[in-house]
Amino acid sequence: MMKTLTAALLASVAFAGAAMAECEVTFKSSDTHPDGYPTVEAVKRMGEMLKERSGGRMCIEVYHSAQLGQEKDTIEQTKFGVIDFNRVSMGPFNNLIEETKVVSLPFIFRDVAHMHRVMDGPIGDEILAGFEPHGFVGLAYYDGGSRSFYNRQKPITSIDDLKGMKIRVMQSDVFVDMMTALGANATPMPYGEVYSAIQTGVIDGAENNWPSFESSGHFEVAGYYTLNQHLIVPEVLVMSKVSWDKLSPEDQALVRQAAKDSIPVNRELWAAREKVSEEKVRAAGVQIIDQIDKTPFIEAMVPVYQKHANTPKLQSLVERIQATE
Ligand code: GTR
Prior knowledge:
By secondary structure, this protein is of the alpha/beta class.
């Protein structure tokens, strides 16, 4: 009796083990950043939670380092279900999904804590829902800190210094107009091309947060970083609607919950990485310009708001974000 029980138990353990090892479905997830970056690690963690909670049925493989392509192209592929999950900036969604423009407006958030309060609440949910009619299911926001200008030529201490400079921006009309309003020449291009474009002098500089400035190696070719913090653009994790529709409602709920549960993982890793990246960049001898009056930058953005928050719906979003304590 005892023997058969043990054998049965052993068999069931072996069976569970096999089930855990076998993924019925392995979703492809894209990220432009290298392995170890806070967004990459958060999606990996989400995959572990999903696997565990689905009894080993659903797994996620994260293709980091832009293995599946540059963000704009991966967004296309996600729409068609070739890629299941995609972790991208809101920026490259701007020309496709109008709600994303609002949170990409320069100085829309007072600071990162304000961004968290807005995106964690009903406004964040409303913007996530805006993805659905376009073929994506919005799942979670991750941290992307604040973005500032860097360049290879000189310290930028005021708007005047930016005049005529060629600065790379993400492929979004909001950012092109932002640079025009600052008197610079905007050069929209994929992230993966920026390093050599700065190195060869095709552009003078770009703009990004500490971890991206560091992990991309841009700090090796752009020796001046001005902490003017013009953008706080949340990162977003989306799923292809094509892949989503293949799931049962129960599995959809598991995906949604695992994505939500990966947010604190991302935030913790982000806070740590920001410090490490800053230290690395400073140690490399990059000149940091941190005494900068933001007011003229903020004032110059009036035409950008007028042009892009141009419907009652978008204006209302802007007002509600600004009114959020
Ligand atoms: C990073 C962001 C990426 C990408 C990149 C860029 O901060 O995490 O998703 O958008 O900026 O500038 O293209």
